[in-house]
Each structure stands twice: as structure tokens, then as C-alpha cells.
Structure to design on (1091 residues):
């Protein structure tokens, strides 16, 4: 066992983690731990769109109103205010670091409005992939003295007396076990999309940070709110970005009908993601899917429509990106054919409960990005708000943690927790049980997709919860099939599965109890929003592996009281 | 159908040496190599280790060698790469194996760190309140370079790294180009640093480009572009490359004259057969064939005569300037482009519009660099340019009846300039295959650099020799008598090392065959 010490340890090196590191490493000693190299993080798959709202002289209220309406009024409005206030200065900071945002011919930043919005506040990075954000921030850290722990899997948080004292981590390359002590820990480990079988998320999105924080006593919030993106490729789940619809791509069913008129007469395809996805799934469920299985997105006329704008690099780049993805992964030509898409898991609105400074209920523990739940996304995230959340709240968590450690002491760590983690690893390495990791994972993903995705009901969710609990039991009797200490991915997959199971249980539990339809959470047996009973956040407390304890807290409402939500 | 995955396995903590394991993987049209590996991991061998993350070609985790060429497993469909229902899967090259398909990436990322991948200009101090206005077209180069995902596929397939570990590698040079081209950065020492890290060591063989899953134009867009920036900043070209231009200006060619030049040996118009020619061509020999490889020139003329093609050999042609384009001396090109293209235009007025080149370097230069330059200099293009092999295969009716038996076992060496001209290897393999009783062994698809391109021969001759020797050794492993190639640069590089080895009494027992001489001899 090797012990390391830092002022701040960051778990996760995607956009939020790197942003937190970039800002905190200027004043304190930072270690950043990630199970993959930073540029392999899931952030890189995003299109690279983020809201910059508002520019000086513009009214921030419209952006806030639309974000909150998009979130079906579950958003904590103090957090939305942060997004509206800090976006613009952040854009300039990002450009200073080396990121460039797409410009028009006259040199002004191109801003557009994603689904469910009319304010033109979404910008896009010049390479057309958020890879540029991750790469640039990694390079900023190269410039400074930050210790990278690449390909280290964090197994637990060391928490004693309600104070976080560091982490335990497993070096994937050589199997060495680490205790990394710190005065503050920031979790920025992303979402857990791999809970579902159909997801746009990377293989690595297993919600590890959320699960370890949960087991260490951090409260989770709004876990039942999971976003299903309308357009992931049928078959692979690879994302066709919302830009496709922003630029005029539209959805058709088997009859060639542009069906979104029915579900959102005004916004049509440009309604928020929950509305579009639910509309698409209804079409498929009612037998109007193409080949009974999917919906087509029609991009055939786009190039023609934008032919006069092709001298603006953004347009050509976007079309080329769609064309490449569709050709590589669906074997279709976007200029001639419909692209087959279905709704697929995309984003976890819920996560570790934090305030607008990334502070959790555990002292010294912070969280930011998709793994956190500041309440900013409400019941449905609006397009381009994820990366904005990562940079703004990543930065805030970094600043706050750096401030926090000035008054904090390096505390002793609970050795018994370290020993039990070590024992867990060794048990898994020598496991000889009856169940297979991949089979449990597949069954979990299929079950969650079947009963706990777009449309949910009491009966299905009850069954789902039973199966998840059963799988948790089976997990105790697994055989990982590889005892090597050298780059043992079988072990990592097992540790990830443990995390997925804990998250799945929270999602189902939250969904089972929330008897209403709000944003992405749609109960067929309670198809209306119920502000009287359910305008509140769900909170999940770890219960030693038993069913988590569920409680509720009010939504922070400031200037935008709930209204009817029509698109 | 079942596809055989032949997978590299090695756990250094247990195994003494690597082994290959065979797995049957059910595959369909849309099955990717990554899907196959995941299938193996879940069903056949739980201990198989590989990296994967996004599975859509952006994160770079799953770069590995698939049938000896590095690529992303998630972007590669099994049906597109399999040979006889099997696929060979190996870890990236040039990086130490941690386990199975997982390599230690630290040396690769160290290279990236080394080039200071951050803006040196401190924009923060400007304190802007609004985003800067800028013409996006000024960022096009930066944008292209930014599309690099740091997967290390190029590093793995780089021929130079194979023989010279001090070379920083393609990805780091892409990173340098990203910052040098950034209008918001200062170039401050970057180009000097790039030269020290081996900018001029790249023989522009483009194997990195083939590997690159983001299709970055590494050769022209990065290496040659950076070299041109060096010239503009007064840091390049290297002294030896400067002398090449001097040579041409003083003597009319890049290389010194050995024996009587071909232009003095042969008349300006050659038609030795009776009757109507099936075609009439202008032969652009290039300096090397004119000045050093007169036998090759003779062979070319013989090939054309045997095929009833009349040949014009205008003495007014001059060096194509390829070595200058390759070494960043774009600004010296005007006299060459003007003289050569004006000459071709004169012929075009007489109705002779087919220009054939015997040197692959000239071909790619005339075909890709000249049109751009000609546009700048306002020179029209009223003719077509062909490589001779291409001309033989595609334009004329090739006389195969008179080809005599030539019992040799050879391997075709596919020159990088032919590749750069967009001409496929198969054209030449088919042509050579027409020679009776000549056995042509399939060449591997990587490690194919003679070391002679990109100005490397003149600036780093040891490196160039090492590359040539490596290429020969790869071929020798296939039990062939020799390599056959149609690029005078390759011929020089290989002949040079074979002679060197002979002089050191280490005869490699290997021959180099010039494509044209081989073909002309077959007509005798």
C-alpha cells in the first residue's frame, strides 16, 4: 500500500474535474485521479455546445425562464442564476486558455437555441467536439504542477465523523493499492448512463463517483430523473447531436408523417428532449415506428438549405460529422437516406446533492458536473447546459475547495476502511462464485431499459426493483475470471457493476415513489404533473446496502413559479 | 459468420513471452473489431485486457494494430479488414506492453507535454470584456490540428520512431502545428524546438496518415506546412536542403551528373517502330533518371517502343522542385513551375497533352503541388499528368505478348509518392504480374519506407540508411530475391545500403530491381 498526500484530490478528469483542477491548482496542491486518461473521458463525445448567457446588455431572464420551464420547474433557481450570470465571463476565460468558439463571417460568436428554447445562447467549440475542451484543460494542467493519477480506480472515500479525509484507489496498471489523503475531495466522475442498455454514454460511464460518495454518506438527489435523448443511432446508441434538429433536421415515422406536431404543436422537433423522446417512443409503441422499431431523422435537405453558408466553417463541419457517424455506424448516407434513431439514455439529472458551491453534506467533500446534482437541470436538462454546468460548477467547486483547505487540517484516515477496501479487492480477485459480471450487467441494463426508462408504471417499477435487488444478491456470488494484478479489466468491470447496481436501485426507488409525470420522469399511471404533492426533490440516504432511505426537500424557487408547460 | 480473431496475449507478470490466441467471433456487417473484443471478453476469455471508452471514434482509447495497421477498434468493421476470415489484433507498436492490447502511453504523452501544448502568449493580461472578433478562416489550420484525439495510432505506425527514438512523433508535430497556426499565440521558439525534435526527420511516407482515425493531413498539412513556416521565420531549411536549390540553379538538377546525361544520349523525339503510334507522350524524367539512372531512361524508352508509343523528350524540362516543396522551400518554386508547365502547354498546343513522369516524386509534385502553385502564378493547365505505370495499365493497350519468362521471386515496394498521387498499389502489382513466371509476394502494409523522401537522405543519412535496411529486412523475411520499385529515390536508397553492406562484407544477399529495367528486360 502506498500513501500520497495532496491538499485537494479530484476524482474524475473530464470537463468538470479538469476545470476544478485548473482553478484550484493555482493556489493549492492538487492530485487528479481518473480511471482513464483525461482525454478518454466521456466529455469528449459531446458536441461541444455550451450556453453563454447572457452577453452584457442582454436580459438573463429569458434563458432562465426557458431552462426552468425545460426542467419542468424542478430546478433549484439559485443554481440556474449561477448559469445565467457566469457563462459569459467563462467563455472569455476558456478562449484565453486555447479553446475557440465558432464565429460568423463577421467574426462574432455564433449562438443558436437548442431544443425547448428561443434564446440564442448556445455556442459551439471550433473543433465540433468537446474533446477540444478536455484537451485544452489537460494542457493547462500540464503547464502547472498537478499530479495526474491516470488509470487509477477510486474504490472508496475515507470518511470518518462526517469529514472526508481522502480516497482509496487501485492502480489499474500494476494492482498497487493507494491511500491518497487530502483535506478536500472533489468528485467529478460523470454520469451513470451504462445503467441502461440503450445509451449514448461511453462504456466508462458507470457512475462510480456517485456510488462511492453515496456509500460514504453523501446524499443523492433526484436520481429518478434520467434524460433520454431523442436521437441516438438505432443499434449502437451513438448520439446524433441535437444540432441536427437545430439546423432543421426533422423526425418522421413509418408513414412518413412529421409526427411531432401532435406532441408539441409549436416547437415540434425543437421541443425539449423529454417531450420529443416521449413522443417518439409513443409512435414506436403504437406501431408507427419504421420497421416497427425506430424513427427516421431526415437530414437530406440540410446541405442544400445551408449551401450559401458553407463558407462558415461550422456548417460544413457539422454536416461532415453527422455524415461520418451515420456512415460509420448506421451505414446510411445522410444526403440520401433517413438516419435510423431511437430515444436513448443520455444524461443523469440527479446525483450527489450539492449547493451552488459544490459542497455536499459531508464536510470536505465536493462534487461537480454530471455526477453532482446542484438542482440546476431540474427534471429535464436543456441542450448545451451540461458542459456549461461542468465548467461553471467545476470551477466553483475548485474555488471553494481551495478556500476550504486553508482552514482545514489533514486528518488521520480510518485504517479499518482501508483494510476493508483491500479485502474487497482481494476477494474479487480470488472470486470463485457462480455468476458472471457481464451477464449480471446485461440483465441489469435490459431490466432498467424495460421498466424504468421513458415510460414507467407501478407494476413495472416494482418488478424492476425486485430484479435489481436480486442482482445485488447475485453480485455477492460472482466470478470475475481473472486474478492477475496487471491491468485487470475484469476486476474493474466488477467494481463498476457494484456501482451501477447501487445507482439503479436509487433510480427505481425514486421513480416508484414519485407518482406524477414531471419532465423526463413519466408515470403512465400518473400522467400529470402534480405540484401540490411532488414539487420537491427526492433525497437518498445510504442504508448499509439495504433499500436506501428516501426523503424529500423543497425546490428552491425564486422568480419563476411553476406554470403549465406547453411547447 | 465466424471470424477468427488472432489476438496478441501477454501478461509480463506471468508469461515469459507473448503468444497469439485464436478466437471465433460471430460477426455481421456492422460488427466492429471492438465489438469482437468485447464478445471475447464476455464469452471466451475474461482475462483479455484492452482499453475502450466512447466506442464512436472520439476518445482514442481503443487504438491498436489491426492487421498490422494502427486504427481505432471501434471504428473498424471486421468485414472491412479481415483476410481469409481472420483478423490479427496486436497492441500499438513502439510502446511497452502492459498487458495484452494495453500499452504504456506515458512516453507518448511525454512527447505531447514536451512541445509546450499551451498558448505562450498570455491573453489573460489583455483583459477583454467581449469575445475577440476573428475571421474563422484564420483558424482552419488550428481547427484541423485540434481534431487530433491523441490516440497514438500515428506514433505506433511511424517508421522513423522505429529506428530513432529521439524523434518526437507525428502527434506532437500536429500539436506544434496547432499552436504555430493559432493566431492568438506567439510562435516563440516553437519552430526551433520542432526542428530539434526532428521536424526534418520525417521522410513523408504517410503511414501516420493512413493510421490517423481523424484523417489529419499530417504530411502536407502539418510536416510540410511547419517546414514552410520555418523557412518564413528564417529557421529553415536545413543547410543541406538549401544547397539543393543552389545545385539546381547552378547545374540544372538536384543531383550531380554521373556519366552522360540521358538528355544527351537520346534524341528529342523517339519513334523506332513502324506505323502509327497508339499514343504520343511527353516524358518528364526528373533529375535522378536524367543524371544518374540513364539505364532506366533507356528502359522506359524501350517499354514505350514495344508498346508503339512515341516519346518526346524535351530538353527544356527542368527539376520539378519536389525536394524544395518537401523541405519548406515553397517560395523557390516559381521558376520550375513556370518552365515546366509552359513547356507542357506548348506541346498541348500541338495536340500532345499526355505528360508521363518516370519519377514518383515528380509525379506527386506535378500533380498536387503544381496546380496550386500554377493558380497562384496564373499559369493554365492544358495537359494531363500520368505516372508511367499508371499510363501502361490504364491508358494504352499494353503489349503483354512479347514479355519473356523472368523467373524471379520479388516483392513490390510501393513508393510513398505513388501513394501520395492517389495511385493504388494494385495497379503496379497487376502490371508486374503480367511478366511470365515472375512470382510476386504480397508486401506487408507497414514498415514501407526507403528513407529517401522528404529531404531525409541529404540531412540525416544514417536515419535514411537505417530505414532502408529495415525495409529490406522486412522483405527478406518473406524469402524473396529482391524488391522491385518504380521510384528513383527508393532505388538509390536501397542500392546505397546494399552497396554499403557489401563494402562492409555483410552482403545482404538481396537485389533491388528497377521496375522499368525489369519490364524492359522482359521484352528482350
Amino acid at each position: 500500500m502506498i500513501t500520497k498526500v495532496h491538499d485537494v484530490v479530484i476524482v474524475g478528469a473530464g470537463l468538470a474535474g479538469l476545470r476544478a483542477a485548473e482553478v484550484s491548482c493555482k493556489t493549492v496542491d492538487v492530485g487528479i485521479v481518473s480511471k482513464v486518461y483525461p482525454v478518454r473521458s466521456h466529455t469528449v463525445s459531446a458536441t461541444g455546445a455550451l450556453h453563454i448567457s447572457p452577453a452584457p446588455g442582454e436580459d438573463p431572464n429569458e434563458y432562465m425562464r426557458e431552462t426552468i420551464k425545460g426542467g419542468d420547474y424542478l430546478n433549484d433557481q439559485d443554481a440556474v442564476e449561477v448559469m445565467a450570470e457566469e457563462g459569459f465571463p467563462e467563455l472569455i476565460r476558456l478562449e484565453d486558455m486555447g479553446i475557440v468558439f465558432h464565429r460568423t463571417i463577421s467574426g462574432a460568436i455564433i449562438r443558436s437555441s437548442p431544443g425547448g428554447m428561443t434564446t440564442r445562447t448556445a455556442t459551439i467549440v471550433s473543433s465540433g467536439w468537446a474533446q477540444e475542451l478536455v484537451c485544452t484543460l489537460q494542457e493547462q494542467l500540464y503547464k502547472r504542477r498537478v499530479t495526474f493519477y491516470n488509470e487509477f480506480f477510486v474504490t472508496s472515500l475515507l470518511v470518518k465523523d462526517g469529514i472526508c479525509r481522502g480516497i482509496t484507489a487501485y492502480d489499474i496498471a500494476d494492482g498497487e493499492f493507494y491511500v491518497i489523503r487530502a483535506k478536500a475531495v472533489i468528485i467529478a466522475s460523470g454520469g451513470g448512463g451504462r445503467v441502461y442498455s440503450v445509451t449514448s454514454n461511453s462504456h466508462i460511464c458507470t457512475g462510480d463517483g456517485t456510488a462511492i460518495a453515496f456509500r460514504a454518506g453523501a446524499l443523492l438527489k433526484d436520481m429518478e430523473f434520467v434524460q433520454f435523448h431523442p436521437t441516438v443511432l438505432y443499434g449502437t446508441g451513438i448520439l446524433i447531436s441535437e444540432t441536427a434538429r437545430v439546423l432543421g433536421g426533422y423526425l418522421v415515422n413509418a408513414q412518413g408523417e412529421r409526427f411531432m406536431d401532435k406532441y408539441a404543436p409549436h416547437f415540434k422537433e425543437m421541443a425539449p428532449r423529454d417531450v420529443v423522446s416521449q413522443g417518439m417512443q409513443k409512435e414506436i409503441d403504437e406501431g408507427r415506428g419504421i420497421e416497427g422499431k425506430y424513427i427516421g431523422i431526415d437530414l437530406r435537405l440540410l446541405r442544400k438549405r445551408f449551401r450559401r453558408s458553407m463558407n462558415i466553417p461550422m456548417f460544413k463541419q457539422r454536416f461532415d460529422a453527422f455524415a461520418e457517424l451515420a456512415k460509420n455506424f448506421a451505414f446510411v448516407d445522410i444526403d440520401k437516406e433517413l438516419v435510423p434513431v431511437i430515444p436513448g439514455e443520455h444524461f443523469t439529472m440527479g446525483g450527489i446533492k450539492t449547493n451552488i458551491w459544490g459542497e455536499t453534506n459531508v464536510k470536505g467533500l465536493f462534487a461537480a458536473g454530471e455526477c453532482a446534482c446542484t438542482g440546476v437541470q431540474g427534471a429535464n436538462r436543456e441542450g448545451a447546459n451540461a458542459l456549461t454546468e461542468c465548467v461553471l460548477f467545476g470551477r466553483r467547486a475548485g474555488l471553494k475547495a481551495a478556500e476550504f483547505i486553508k482552514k482545514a487540517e489533514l486528518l488521520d484516515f480510518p485504517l479499518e476502511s482501508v483494510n476493508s477496501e483491500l479485502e474487497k479487492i482481494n476477494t474479487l480477485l480470488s472470486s470463485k462464485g457462480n455468476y458472471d459480471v457481464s451477464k449480471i450487467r446485461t440483465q441489469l441494463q435490459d431490466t432498467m431499459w424495460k421498466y424504468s426508462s421513458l415510460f414507467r408504471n407501478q407494476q413495472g417499477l416494482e418488478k424492476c426493483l425486485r430484479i435489481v435487488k436480486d442482482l445485488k444478491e447475485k453480485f455477492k456470488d460472482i466470478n470475475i475470471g481473472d486474478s492477475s494484478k496487471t491491468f485487470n479489466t475484469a476486476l474493474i468491470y466488477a467494481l463498476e457493476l457494484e456501482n451501477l447496481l447501487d445507482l439503479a436501485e436509487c433510480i427505481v426507488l425514486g421513480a416508484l415513489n414519485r407518482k406524477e409525470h414531471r419532465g423526463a420522469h413519466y408515470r403512465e399511471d400518473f400522467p400529470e404533473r402534480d405540484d401540490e404533492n411532488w414539487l420537491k426533490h427526492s433525497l437518498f440516504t445510504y442504508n448499509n446496502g439495504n433499500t436506501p432511505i428516501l426523503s424529500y426537500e423543497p425546490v428552491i424557487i425564486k422568480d419563476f413559479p411553476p406554470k403549465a408547460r406547453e411547447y | 459468420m465466424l471470424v477468427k480473431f488472432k489476438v496478441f496475449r501477454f501478461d509480463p507478470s506471468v508469461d515469459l513471452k507473448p503468444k497469439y490466441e485464436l478466437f471465433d467471433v460471430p460477426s455481421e456487417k456492422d460488427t466492429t473489431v471492438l465489438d469482437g473484443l468485447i464478445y471475447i471478453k464476455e464469452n471466451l476469455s475474461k482475462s483479455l485486457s484492452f482499453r475502450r471508452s466512447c466506442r464512436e471514434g472520439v476518445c482514442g482509447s481503443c487504438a491498436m494494430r489491426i492487421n498490422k495497421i494502427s486504427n481505432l477498434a471501434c471504428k473498424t468493421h471486421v468485414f472491412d479488414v479481415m483476410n481469409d476470415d481472420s483478423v490479427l489484433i496486436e497492441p500499438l507498436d513502439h510502446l511497452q506492453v502492459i498487458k495484452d492490447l494495453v500499452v504504456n502511453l506515458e512516453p507518448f504523452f511525454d512527447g505531447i507535454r514536451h512541445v509546450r501544448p499551451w498558448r505562450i502568449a498570455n491573453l489573460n493580461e489583455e483583459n477583454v470584456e467581449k469575445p475577440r472578433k476573428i475571421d474563422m478562416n484564420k483558424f482552419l489550420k488550428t481547427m484541423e490540428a485540434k481534431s487530433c484525439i491523441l490516440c497514438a495510432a500515428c506514433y505506433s505506425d511511424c517508421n522513423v520512431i522505429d529506428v530513432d527514438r529521439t524523434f518526437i512523433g507525428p502527434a506532437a508535430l500536429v500539436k506544434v502545428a496547432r499552436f504555430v497556426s493559432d493566431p492568438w499565440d506567439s510562435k516563440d521558439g516553437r519552430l526551433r524546438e520542432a526542428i530539434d525534435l526532428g521536424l526534418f526527420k520525417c521522410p513523408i511516407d504517410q503511414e501516420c496518415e493512413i493510421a490517423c482515425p481523424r484523417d489529419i493531413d499530417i504530411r502536407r498539412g502539418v510536416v510540410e506546412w511547419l517546414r514552410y513556416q520555418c523557412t518564413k521565420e528564417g529557421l529553415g531549411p536545413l543547410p543541406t536542403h538549401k544547397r539543393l536549390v543552389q545545385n539546381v540553379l547552378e547545374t540544372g538538377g538536384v543531383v550531380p551528373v554521373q556519366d552522360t546525361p540521358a538528355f544527351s544520349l537520346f534524341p528529342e523525339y523517339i519513334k523506332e517502330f513502324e506505323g502509327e503510334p497508339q499514343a504520343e507522350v511527353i516524358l518528364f524524367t526528373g533529375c535522378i533518371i536524367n543524371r544518374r539512372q540513364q539505364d532506366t531512361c533507356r528502359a522506359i524508352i524501350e517499354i514505350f517502343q514495344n508498346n508503339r508509343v512515341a516519346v518526346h523528350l524535351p530538353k527544356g524540362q527542368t527539376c520539378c522542385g519536389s525536394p524544395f516543396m518537401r523541405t519548406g522551400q515553397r517560395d523557390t518554386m516559381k521558376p520550375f513551375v513556370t518552365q515546366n508547365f509552359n513547356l507542357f502547354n506548348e506541346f498541348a498546343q500541338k495536340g500532345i497533352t499526355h505528360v508521363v513522369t518516370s519519377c514518383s516524386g515528380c509525379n506527386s509534385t506535378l500533380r498536387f503541388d503544381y496546380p496550386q502553385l500554377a493558380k497562384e502564378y496564373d499559369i493554365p493547365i492544358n495537359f494531363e499528368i500520368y505516372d508511367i505505370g499508371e499510363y501502361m495499365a490504364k491508358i494504352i493497350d499494353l503489349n503483354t505478348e512479347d514479355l519473356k519468362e523472368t523467373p524471379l521471386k520479388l516483392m513490390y515496394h510501393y513508393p510513398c509518392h505513388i501513394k501520395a498521387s492517389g495511385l493504388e498499389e494494385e495497379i503496379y502489382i497487376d502490371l508486374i504480374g503480367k511478366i511470365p513466371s515472375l512470382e510476386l509476394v504480397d508486401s506487408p502494409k507497414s514498415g514501407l519506407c526507403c528513407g529517401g523522401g522528404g529531404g531525409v537522405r541529404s540531412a540525416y543519412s544514417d536515419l535514411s540508411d537505417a530505414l532502408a535496411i529495415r525495409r529490406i529486412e522486412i522483405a527478406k523475411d518473406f524469402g524473396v530475391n529482391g524488391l522491385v520499385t518504380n521510384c528513383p529515390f527508393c532505388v538509390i536508397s536501397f542500392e546505397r545500403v546494399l552497396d554499403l553492406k557489401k563494402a562492409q562484407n555483410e552482403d545482404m544477399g538481396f537485389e533491388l530491381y528497377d521496375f522499368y529495367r525489369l519490364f524492359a528486360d522482359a521484352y528482350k
Observations:
- Chain A touches chain B through 64 residues (CB under 8 Å).
- Chain A has a mean pLDDT of 96.
- The radius of gyration of chain A is 22 Å.
- DSSP finds 16 helices and 22 strands in chain A.
